[in-house]
């Protein structure tokens, strides 16, 4: 089980200090929002470059933006180790997957709560990761939507059908209780923001999730 603390809930005034509080995490989830695909605006490649300068952790970059191809290269050059974009943001997801892979990084596809897993059937054999949003993307601190568990189960079954052992990631409302539900459904990566960073001891929260 990979725990990926989300910097959306970190202290943006001192990200270096926030990362120092979650050193045991293998991945750091980087939420990129453009104010168009989702209402909020967060960070760009310059912040990723700053993060890269003081951590060796995997920077799991989640592009919640309208035009992922326009910016993917800049994020990879800044230090992103993985790029995930939204199925709903593009007209030809397979083309986007293949072009981002040419940048030399694993590629994930993310779906909003109202998007059916079956929408991904034609591209599941080409992705390295599927990110199930268990809240509406764009804001931190939301409650977990239980229907995400059924999506995770369906994606777990489809691994055998498409013969691709992609990672299944879940993001939104993750705590010790919802993490257990997701793990039992087959999830590989847990993204947690508020649960980790809104605690006086983020490392203990990571251990609780483990």
UniProtKB/TrEMBL annotation:
SUPFAM superfamilies according to UniProt: Ribulose-phoshate binding barrel (SSF51366)
Transmembrane segments: none
Catalytic activity field: D-ribulose 5-phosphate = D-xylulose 5-phosphate
Associated pathway: Carbohydrate degradation
Superkingdom of origin: Bacteria
Cofactor comment text: Binds 1 divalent metal cation per subunit.
Pfam families noted in UniProt: Ribul_P_3_epim
Active site per UniProt: 31, 171
Residues annotated for a divalent metal cation binding in this entry: 29, 31, 62, 171
Binding site for substrate: 6, 62, 138-141, 171-173, 193-194
Biological processes annotated in GO: pentose catabolic process; pentose-phosphate shunt
Gene Ontology cellular component terms for the protein in this record: cytoplasm
EC number(s) stated in the UniProt entry for this protein: 5.1.3.1
Cofactor names: Zn(2+); Mn(2+); a divalent metal cation; Co(2+)
Function: Catalyzes the reversible epimerization of D-ribulose 5-phosphate to D-xylulose 5-phosphate.
Entry-linked NCBIfam families: PRK05581.1-4, rpe
PANTHER family recorded: RIBULOSE-5-PHOSPHATE-3-EPIMERASE (PTHR11749)
Similarity comment text for this entry: Belongs to the ribulose-phosphate 3-epimerase family.
Protein name: Ribulose-phosphate 3-epimerase
Lineage: Bacteria, Bacillati, Mycoplasmatota, Mollicutes, Candidatus Izemoplasmatales
Gene: rpe
